[in-house]
TrEMBL record:
Gene3D superfamilies: Ankyrin repeat-containing domain (1.25.40.20). It comes from the Bacteria. It holds the Pfam family Ank_2. This is Ankyrin repeat domain-containing protein. SMART domains: ANK.
Amino acid sequence: MTENSEDAMPEDEAVVALAQSMLDAARNGDSAQLLPVIDQGAPVDLRDGDGNTPLMLAAYHGHAELVRELAARGADVDLANDRGQSPLAGVAFKGHTAVAQVLLQAGADADLGAPSARETAQYFQRAEIIALLEQAG
């Protein structure tokens, strides 16, 4: 092993640790930890091993204000994970009406993904989310 490759290992580990901390912060709704890192240049659409972004994780766990802040920083509100699920479909599954409203205000498409948010909301009989989707068009 050369000196350079030994130096690269800790840096690689630091990058992985930073990515994991960002994803954990999104999952936990910890905007104080996540947003400054993004503001300093970390990728807003960073993906985990399943293709979930911070916005997807924040949305799925019901953190409406963090979702709003991520969208304002350029997060793709329609970026599907590796299973073809959009953030809005995940929210429809979980029943997070406030997050659905934020995503729709940010331009999320209710018909993307498999199943789509519209299909998911209908299947799980999420009346409030169905009404939001109908208002959005």
